[in-house]
Design goal:
This protein has 414 residues and is of the alpha/beta class. The chain has 14 helices and nine strands. Helix 9 links the parallel strand 1 and strand 2. The structure holds S-adenosylmethionine. Belongs to the carnosine N-methyltransferase family.
């Protein structure tokens, strides 16, 4: 049965979120992190999604409110500016092609018509992005954003890169094309939730599962779809706007499409690969059992979740390396898990703040993390040091990144 009420609820913003979304954001023009791809030291940033926090500083509530509004409109602006930005990129390519000697141009009769096709894909993506941010001012339960009537301004390269990553996240979370990736990243986690909280032994609707860094929400949705009470938490407005769109406004399988690969001009075997669409959502997000409890909170995991012994299970997927200091994450997880509760983790250690000037970043090896986890008192139930996964991989690309993720299940003793 469709559980419209579970999903039609607005994205719930925890009280702390009002501070979290604005106060801790830095102007994205101030020294961007590496774009997806590889930085000069060979470090790969394919899953860089972090909106960068400010140094924690005390601001008046008014100043916080102002910064939060500014941040909100900056991200909306990025969604609106997308088309202009990507068209400029294509125009540059066209200009360069036209500057080639005529005999060389003649060798490539399809080149310009391919660019025309890309232009159509850009316009389509722009329409979807506009649909995503339509009504976003009203998506939070405890916060409204007044329309500021801003005209569209050029957005930073940093924000454009994040928007392109968010578009790719639709593949991972909500398309048939992302199934293999979900099978390798989400399924092991779902299996453990089911194993430690089996339907035969407990009322799963009373088991509270938290998914910090929930991205576009598919893992949280899948856990809720098994009957558990699940809350996703996310601080990126790029992600929150998009998950709100899928979870609350999509109700027909594969009724939308996006062209996530048009931004990739290198490593295409065939031109057609660049302009192939993905369709979403591959499931109807409203098809949850009635009474199932699924919610999303907006804001910084560490600021929102301070209540002790609240959660039966915490599931982190490609998340712990988003920390400035992963020990802080472990500390929060320890405190908010119930005694006897389970923490399931899968992901690499691609520290998001490494190489960012003026950002604290404590990069621990897995060995060090494990030692810290043990010293907190967690007991290891399961551990695999090399689970092969990808993150928003382009299956047809001539270049792909693979991760050998660590996977563990630990228990906080009773
Ligand atoms: C690499 S993505 C993983 C998303 C998702 N779990 C997946 O596997 O596809 C990490 C996510 O964590 C979010 N994030 C980073 N730091 C966070 C924080 N302190 N609180 C909440 N979310 C955070 C980012 O915005 C991003 O969406």
């Amino acid at each position: 049965m469709a559980a419209a009420c579970a999903l039609s609820r607005k994205t719930a913003a925890a009280p702390q979120m009002e501070a979290g979304l604005g106060r801790r954001r830095k102007s994205s023009d101030g020294g961007s992190p590496p774009s997806p791809g590889c930085s000069s030291n060979g470090q790969c940033w394919e899953h860089e999604e972090v909106e960068r926090p400010l140094y924690r500083q005390r601001l008046s509530p008014r100043e916080e409110e102002r910064l939060e509004n500014e941040h909100f409109w900056k991200i909306i602006n990025a969604f609106n500016y997308y088309g202009t930005n990507i068209h400029e990129r294509v125009n540059r390519t066209e200009k360069q092609f036209i500057s080639l000697p005529a005999n060389q141009q003649k060798l490539l009769p399809q080149f310009l018509s391919h660019l025309e096709k890309i232009r159509k894909c850009i316009d389509h993506n722009q329409q979807i992005l506009q649909a995503i941010v339509n009504d976003c001012m009203h998506m939070f339960e405890n916060k409204e954003y007044a329309d500021d009537g801003n005209t569209i301004m050029p957005a930073s390269t940093f924000d454009m890169d994040k928007l392109k990553s968010t578009i790719k996240q639709f593949i991972r979370d909500w398309s048939e094309d992302g199934k293999a990736e979900r099978d390798s990243c989400y399924q092991p986690i779902i299996n453990e939730v089911k194993k430690y909280f089996p339907k035969e032994k407990c009322d799963v609707s009373k088991i509270n599962v938290l998914v910090p860094g929930a991205g576009l929400g598919r893992l949280a949705w899948e856990i809720a779809n098994q009957g558990y009470s699940c809350q996703g938490n996310e601080w990126s407005l790029f992600m929150l706007f998009s998950s709100n769109f899928v979870l609350n406004r999509c109700s027909q399988v594969n009724s939308f499409k996006l062209y996530p690969w048009i931004h990739q001009f290198s490593n295409n075997r065939r031109s057609a690969d660049q302009i192939r669409p993905i369709h979403f959502p591959d499931v109807n997000p409203h098809d949850l059992l009635s009474g199932v409890n699924l919610s999303m909170t907006a804001g910084d995991f560490q600021e929102i979740y301070t209540e002790r012994s609240m959660w039966d299970c915490i599931a982190t997927c490609f998340f712990i390396d988003t920390a400035h200091n992963v020990v802080d994450y472990i500390d929060t997880i320890w405190k908010i898990l119930k005694p006897g509760g389970i923490w399931i983790n899968l992901g690499p250690l691609l520290y998001h703040f490494e190489n960012l000037a003026n950002e604290i970043s404590i990069e621990l090896s897995y060995e060090d993390i494990k030692n810290v986890v043990l010293q907190y008192g967690f007991c290891f139930e399961e551990e695999k040091e090399s689970v092969l996964t990808t993150y928003t991989v382009n299956d047809l690309s001539m270049m792909k990144y693979y991760y050998e993720c660590v996977f563990f299940v630990v228990r906080k003793p009773e």
